[in-house]
Amino acid sequence: MPLRLVRRPKSPNWIIRGTLRGIRIEESTGVGDKRAAEEIKAKREAEILAESVYGRRATATFASAAVSYLEHGGDNRFH
Questions:
Q1: pTM
Q2: Which residue has the higher pLDDT, 14 or 60?
Q3: How many CA atoms lie within 13 A of 51 on its CB side?
Q4: Which one of 21, 58, 70, 71 is separated from 64 by 20 to 30 angstroms, measured CA to CA?
């Protein structure tokens, strides 16, 4: 099932829902504008495809690595 945009009752934000490359996705876009939600969905699809081809480790960004470091008790003195 490809990814699609849906709205939950009483929620202003669009939700990305579906399965892509065996990965089940259900996450909020955080936006109520459908055009912006479509762009977020396309970006998320590209991320999932890149991870399925190259692996999660190869597609991680410096920003995501820095956030993960801080979330797991890393020193934030350089922040």
A1: 0.67
A2: 14
A3: 14
A4: 21
